[in-house]
Amino acid sequence: MIAKIHTGNNFGGLVNYANDIVKKDAVVVASYGVSLTSNAAITASFKAQAKAHPGVKNFVGHISLSFSPNDKEKVNNDLMALPQVCRHY
């Protein structure tokens, strides 16, 4: 597995990039405390949560995971959504 980690402070840009279902066939496999009705709703949820932590500057994080094609049978959305994989802090 290869992971690429990026941080920043633009929720809208990240949500529109990561959740581009037309270009990337993206799906959200797990969420907690975020409205998933649209990209605008996701962005609004993130902004509301960020207001609770005004001292944090780079509050946007994006982690891309690339798995080996050999692991296709082992890695799936159900596995990625398990609590030990996707922790909620």
Summarize the structure.
The chain is an alpha+beta fold and 89 residues long.
Number of domain modules: 1
Number of strands: 2
Categorize the overall geometry.
Answer: globular
- As laid out across the biggest beta sheet, the strand order is 1-2
Report the sheet-strand fraction. 15-25%
Structural classification: alpha+beta
| Unreliable segments of 5+ consecutive residues | none
Largest sheet: 2 strands, antiparallel
**Number of helical elements:** 4
Spatial extent as radius of gyration: 14 Å
How far apart are the termini?
Answer: 24 Å
Portion of residues in helices? Answer: 25-40%
Kindly report the average pLDDT value: 79
Question: What's the arrangement of secondary structure elements?
Answer:
Layout lengths: L1 E7 L2 H8 L2 H4 L14 H12 L9 E7 L10 H4 L9
Antiparallel strand pairs: 1-2
Commentary on this structure:
This protein has helices at residues 11-18, 21-24, 39-50, 77-80, and strands at residues 2-8, 60-66. With 89 residues, it is an alpha+beta fold. It has one domain. Strands 1-2 form a two-stranded antiparallel ribbon. Helix 1 (11-18) runs antiparallel to helix 3 (39-50). The model has no long low-confidence stretch (mean pLDDT 79).
Q: Could you name the key traits of this structure?
A:
alpha+beta; two-stranded antiparallel sheet; 2 strands
